[in-house]
Description:
It is a single chain. The chain is mainly α. The chain has helices spanning 2-7, 12-20, 25-56, 61-79, 91-131. It is elongated. 27% of the residues are buried.
Amino acid sequence: FAWLSIVGGRFMAPFLRHESHxxxxxxxxxxxxxxxxxxxxxxxxxxSIADQYELRKPHKGRAQILMAGVLVGSFVFMxxxxxxxxxxxxxxxxxxxxxxxxxxxxxxxSMTIPVLDGxxxxxxxxxNNNRN
Length: 132
């Protein structure tokens, strides 16, 4: 929850306005909506990959996929600051850079949410089996 709040939560819109200099709320809204579309389309695929890894490595497979998604998402989030290395970057290059980073973040995010659900359900199922 803390990771999501920091890298993709409610502070992301003001962050994008400041970092990318998006002058228009429409562009920020589009980056969020397209990112959610990508997440919605890829989440079942991410869950399937995590389940396959879990079959190969019990009690570790889903956690590895979750960790990969969190690491990639965090790295992409930090890449937003790379534009400051070249202060002469044009508005369009900067906009494309930040928009692309949001789309890559959406792919990473699509790997984390179904995996968290899978880990939680597996834990609850294991606890229920231990009670019986």
